[in-house]
Amino acid sequence: MLSLTSVHADTGALIHPVFRPHAFLPISVPLVVASFVPHKGVPPALFWHFLLQGYSAGFNHANRNKTTTTENKTTLKQSVLIMGTVAYSTVAGALPQIILQRLQLSSVSAQAFCRSVLPIPLSACLAAFSVLVVRSEESENGIKVFDSNGNLVGTSKEAGSKAVRETAISRATLFGTTATVPILLLFLLKRAKFVQRNPMLFAPVRHISTAVVLGLMIPVSFSLFPQVGKIKTEYVEKELQTSTNDMELFYHRGL
Question: pTM (2 decimals)?
Answer without folding.
Answer: 0.91
